């Protein structure tokens, strides 16, 4: 019998942290090896399963080294600065990493890539299988609708989300831009206000909605003359992200250092359009 994968969860008391703990505890091929959160978190010192009414024997700590000491994989859905600190510890301890954090800015993303030279890592702005399938659909749609259609990415999330546009919306824009042989940096329009002038052909617009408890909705609109095509994905549970993260952890078990994506995990990278 193969041994269960020992997983430690960063941001253990966050929305995703709790969902990940539940997913790991319920997964037959995984075991919870550590749980940690930011210093000052009121949950420090509590059992990681407290919120589910379960005793796990894993105590939430702010000592990252301690939490990762017995882990094979860290799963991290926190904030860019925290993730970068945690990756340094993974590097020292030889722990693999599944990173779901979004909102990295230029140099921070470079630091993630640099860390992957010594850490075996999956980073994806969205771990859901359906979203990763949608990326492929967008690659095809963008090729077919490359002339005569205005492209807009619209995303909606809960009121507590701190980054915009979502990492997924940005990735959708990148996938479409690549399919059209352009650079998102050159064609992305991220804000409109006042007398904006007419829409410039060839641009990709982004709109952000924040409210209530929306888990995560993404629509790409291809607006033509006399018709519109919309490709939409809606998440109704964070468990899809957690299940995807566990698939990513399993994928990493026999992988050397390097940066992998959910497209690699799901075997979609070879799926050429
Ligand atoms: N890739 C994917 O599939 C998905 C990605 N995400 C991304 O995951 C991230 C977390 O989302 P969510 O769980 O909703 O957020 P939460 O705010 O609910 O959770 C974040 C957790 O990280 C902690 N934290 C905050 N800052 C730091 C830091 N500097 N160092 C270490 N820990 C920190 C928070 O502590 P405290 O509460 O005390 O601040 C909290 O426990 C976001 O970037 C989000 O976009 C979310 C869902 C899916
Ligand atoms: O913060 C969230 O909640 C989510 N963040 C990710 C993103 O920024 O794309 C993924 C998902 O949409 C939920």
Automatic annotation (TrEMBL):
What positions constitute the catalytic site?
A: 157 (proton donor/acceptor), 161 (proton donor)
Please tell me where NAD(+) binds in this chain.
11-16, 100-102, 124-127
Q: What is this protein called?
A: 4-hydroxy-tetrahydrodipicolinate reductase
The residue ranges of the Dihydrodipicolinate reductase N-terminal domain are 5-127
Q: Which organism is it from?
A: Limnobacter humi
Reactions that this protein is recorded to catalyse: (S)-2,3,4,5-tetrahydrodipicolinate + NADP(+) + H2O = (2S,4S)-4-hydroxy-2,3,4,5-tetrahydrodipicolinate + NADPH + H(+); (S)-2,3,4,5-tetrahydrodipicolinate + NAD(+) + H2O = (2S,4S)-4-hydroxy-2,3,4,5-tetrahydrodipicolinate + NADH + H(+)
Ranges where the Dihydrodipicolinate reductase C-terminal domain occurs = 130-266
Q: Tell me where it mainly resides.
A: cytoplasm
**In Gene Ontology terms, what is one molecular function of this protein?**
4-hydroxy-tetrahydrodipicolinate reductase
Its quaternary structure? Answer: Homotetramer.
Cell compartment(s), UniProt: Cytoplasm
EC class (word):
oxidoreductase
Q: Which family does it belong to?
A: Belongs to the DapB family.
Which domain of life does this protein belong to?
Answer: Bacteria
Gene3D superfamilies named in the record: Dihydrodipicolinate Reductase, domain 2, NAD(P)-binding Rossmann-like Domain
Please state the gene responsible for encoding this protein: dapB
User: Could you tell me the keywords of this UniProt record?
Assistant: Amino-acid biosynthesis, Cytoplasm, Diaminopimelate biosynthesis, Lysine biosynthesis, NAD, NADP, Oxidoreductase
**InterPro entries registered for this protein in UniProt:** DapB_C, DapB_N, DapB_N_CS, DHDPR_bac, NAD(P)-bd_dom_sf
């Amino acid at each position: 019998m193969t041994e269960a994968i020992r997983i430690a969860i960063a941001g253990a008391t966050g929305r995703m942290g709790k969902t990940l703990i539940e997913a790991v505890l319920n997964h037959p091929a995984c075991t919870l090896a550590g749980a940690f959160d930011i210093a000052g978190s009121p949950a420090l010192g509590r059992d990681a399963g407290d919120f589910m009414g379960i005793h796990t024997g894993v105590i939430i700590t702010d000592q990252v080294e301690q939490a990762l000491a017995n882990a094979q994989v860290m799963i991290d859905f926190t904030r860019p600065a925290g993730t970068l600190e945690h990756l340094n510890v993974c590097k020292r301890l030889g722990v693999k990493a599944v990173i779901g954090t979004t909102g990295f800015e230029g140099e921070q993303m470079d630091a993630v890539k640099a860390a992957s030279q010594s850490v075996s890592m999956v980073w994806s702005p969205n771990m859901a299988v359906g979203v990763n399938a949608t990326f492929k659909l967008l690659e095809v749609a963008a090729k077919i609708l490359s002339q005569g259609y205005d492209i807009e990415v619209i995303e909606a999330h809960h009121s507590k989300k701190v980054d915009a546009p979502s990492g997924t919306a940005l990735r959708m824009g990148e996938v479409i831009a690549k399919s059209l042989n352009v650079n998102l940096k050159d064609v992305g329009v991220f804000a409109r206000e006042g007398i904006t002038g007419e829409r410039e052909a060839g641009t990709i617009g982004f709109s952000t909605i924040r409210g209530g408890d929306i888990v995560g909705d993404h629509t790409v609109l291809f607006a033509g003359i006399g018709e519109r095509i919309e490709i939409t994905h809606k998440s109704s549970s964070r468990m899809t992200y957690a299940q995807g993260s566990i698939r990513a952890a399993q994928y990493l078990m026999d992988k050397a250092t390097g940066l992998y994506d959910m497209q690699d995990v799901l075997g979609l990278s070879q799926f050429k359009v």
